[in-house]
C-alpha cells in the first residue's frame, strides 16, 4: 500500500501560487487563478491569506528558504574556503539557469513589480537581500568587516547579474563568468 502525504490547504495555495507567480508574474496572476490551480474556493483562500500580497510574501519566503538552504549548503561544503564556495555556487547557477522555465530571480522580478519600498512584498525582498549579503560577507570575514562588506556588495552585484543573464545567455558561460568574476573580487580584496 502506498502512503499518501496530506498537504495543508495553505501549502497547496502557496505551491500553486509559486508555479503561477514565477511563470507568469505576480501582477498577472489573479487570486482566482491561484484558487483554481489549488482546487479550492475564495472562502478557503481568505481563511489562509488576508490578501494577495500576503500570498506573494509567502511565495517569496518559500523561495528565500530554498536559496538560503542552497547557499548555506555551499558555504558548509566549502569548509571555509571562499574559492570552493564560489565554485559550488557557479555549478548551481549553471544548473539553475538550465532549468526549464527559468525566468531569473524571483526577488528581482518582485521588486520590479512592487516598486514601493514600504510594501510587505518589498520588505520581504529587502530582508532576503540583506541575508544574502550577510552570507557573502561571511566568506570574506577574514579580510575584516569593511572589506567583507565591500566583497558582499560585489558578490551581490554578480549574483544579480547572473540571475538576469541566466535567461538571456548560455548557462555554461554564465557559470564560468560568475566563477572568474567572484575569484577576481576575492583576489582584489586580498590585494588591497
Describe this structure in words.
The chain has a domain at 80-191: Tetracycline Repressor, domain 2, CATH 1.10.357. The protein has 192 residues and is mostly helical. It contains 9 helices and no strands. It comes from Glycomyces terrestris.
List keywords for this structure.
9 helices, 192 residues, 76% helix
Question: What is the topology?
Answer:
Elements: H1 9-24, H2 31-38, H3 42-48, H4 52-78, H5 82-98, H6 106-113, H7 120-139, H8 145-165, H9 171-191
Helix pairs in contact: 1-2, 1-4, 4-5, 4-7, 5-9, 6-7, 7-8, 8-9
Largest sheet: none
Uncertain segments: none
Distance between the termini: 64 Å
Q: Which structural category do the helix and sheet elements fall into?
A: mainly alpha
Pfam families: TetR_N
Protein name: TetR/AcrR family transcriptional regulator
Organism: Glycomyces terrestris
Domain HTH tetR-type: 7-67
Amino acid at each position: 500500500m502506498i502512503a499518501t502525504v496530506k498537504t495543508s490547504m495553505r501549502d497547496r495555495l502557496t505551491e500553486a501560487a509559486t508555479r503561477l507567480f514565477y511563470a507568469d508574474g505576480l501582477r498577472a496572476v489573479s487570486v482566482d487563478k491561484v484558487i483554481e490551480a489549488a482546487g479550492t474556493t475564495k472562502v478557503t483562500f481568505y481563511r489562509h491569506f488576508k490578501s494577495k500580497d500576503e500570498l506573494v510574501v509567502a511565495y517569496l519566503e518559500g523561495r528565500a528558504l530554498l536559496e538560503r538552504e542552497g547557499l548555506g549548503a555551499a558555504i558548509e561544503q566549502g569548509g571555509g574556503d571562499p574559492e570552493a564556495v564560489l565554485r559550488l555556487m557557479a555549478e548551481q547557477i549553471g544548473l539553475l539557469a538550465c532549468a526549464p522555465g527559468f525566468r531569473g530571480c524571483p526577488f528581482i522580478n518582485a521588486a520590479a513589480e512592487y516598486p514601493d519600498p514600504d510594501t510587505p512584498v518589498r520588505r520581504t525582498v529587502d530582508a532576503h537581500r540583506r541575508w544574502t549579503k550577510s552570507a557573502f560577507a561571511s566568506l570574506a570575514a577574514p579580510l575584516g568587516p569593511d572589506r567583507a562588506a565591500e566583497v558582499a556588495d560585489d558578490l551581490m552585484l554578480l549574483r544579480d547579474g547572473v540571475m538576469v543573464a541566466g535567461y538571456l545567455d548560455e548557462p555554461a558561460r554564465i557559470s564560468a563568468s560568475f566563477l572568474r568574476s567572484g575569484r577576481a573580487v576575492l583576489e582584489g580584496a586580498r590585494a588591497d
